[in-house]
Amino acid sequence: MGILGPLTVRLNGQSIVPSAGKPRQLLALLAIRAERVVTVPTLMEEIWGDAIPKSAATTLQTYILHLRRKVTAALRADGPGCGPGRDGDAKEVLTTCFGGYRLAVRPEDSDLREFQSLAVRGSTALEAGDPRAASVTLERALGLWRGPALVDVPVGRVLGVEVLGMEEQRTRVLEQRIEADLLLGRHASLLAELRMLVARHPMNENLAAQLMTALYRSGGVWRALEVFQELRRTLIEELGVEPSHRLQRLHQAVLSGEPGLELEWERAQYAGPSLMRT
């Protein structure tokens, strides 16, 4: 089951993803919350937001029927001998529960769950002082992404929150993987990636700090200072705030060329990028 990119849900090797937008939305939400009941009001909110029509209940049932037909077609792909009774199996895959519906597929078979599991393992390795294992594990987690989450699915209010959470997890894992690579002395090879990331996320203090660190260690002191000034201008213009105290301390350390900058920065990073926001 693929969520980290285009939506993919297969039974017996057959896709059950519908081409129509709203049934696809329903399947995506049911897949993210696999083996959990998704209530009818939640499904309606996803599809229609605040503009729920009077015919919503009937229309929702039609969408569910459409999904079950896709499930039935996939189950019948087993071959001959699969008669009309297979409709009952479809209702076991997409079950009606009190107040909602549940997709009865193993959540651990999804790329989202695998990503989350690898992210925890990588974070644990980093905190335990093993940046090499952390880098490898976190890179494996990031490699599961095939594009933006649910890139081919119309996203309503409920899915929008789910996607935002997944993208935030992805950014956090990326920051940790870069942190591990900095601890391994890979600052020079990180420069191009970090420049691109800072350009994409101009108000992300963690990425800016990592780029400053990589530039400083590569001998680009003035470029590191330039990164800080650009971030400061952006934060003031967009939010009316100064960079965090943590980032200002890093800026001062770069300015003064403190001999222990690298060691102190590495120690701070083990406490987690969240310190950058204090």
Automatic annotation (TrEMBL):
The keyword Ubl conjugation does not apply. It comes from the Bacteria. GO terms for molecular function: DNA binding. PROSITE patterns: OMPR_PHOB. Residues 1-105 form the OmpR/PhoB-type domain. Keywords: DNA-binding, Transcription, Transcription regulation, Two-component regulatory system. Belongs to the AfsR/DnrI/RedD regulatory family. PANTHER family: TRANSCRIPTIONAL REGULATOR REDD (PTHR35807:SF1), TRANSCRIPTIONAL REGULATOR REDD-RELATED (PTHR35807). This is Pathway-specific transcriptional activator. It comes from Streptomyces vietnamensis.
